[in-house]
Amino acid sequence: MSQTLEALQEDIAAGRLKTDELVLNMGPQHPSTHGVLRLELVLDGEAVVKVIPHLGYLHRCFEKHAEAMTYPQVIPYTDRMDYLAAMNNNHGYALAIERLMGIELPERVEYIRVIMAELQRIASHLVAIGTFGMDIGAFTPFLYCFRDREYILDIFERTCGARLLYNYMWVGGLSHDVHDGFEKDVRDFIKRFRPTIKEVNDLLNYNKIFIERTANIGVLPVDVAVSYGCSGPMLRGSGVDFDLRRDDPYSIYDRFDWQVCVGKGEAGTVGDCWDRHMVRVWEMEQSCNIIEQALETFPPGDITEAIPKRIRPPKGEIYTRVENPRGELGYYVISDGSANPFRVKARGPSFVNLSVIDEISRGHLIADIVAILGSIDIVLGEIDR
Amino acid sequence: MGLLDKQFDDGNIVLTSLEGVLNWARLCSLWQMSFGLACCAIEMMAASASHNDIMRFGVLPRPSPRQCDVMIVAGTVTLKMASRVKRLYEQMAEPRYVVSMGSCSNCGGPYWEHGYHVLKGVDRVVPVDVYVPGCPPRPEALLEGWMRLQEKVRDFSLVKPQNGKPQNGRA
Amino acid sequence: MNTKDMFDHLAALFPDLELQLDEDVPCIIVPPDAIREVGLQLRDDEQLLLDSLMCLSGVDFADGTLGVVYHLHSMLHNHKLTVKVVVPVENPHVQTVERVWRTADWHEREAYDLIGVIFDGHRDLRRILNPYDWEGHPLRKDYEVPEFYNGMKVPY
Question: With a threshold of 0.80, does the pTM exceed it?
Answer without folding.
Answer: yes
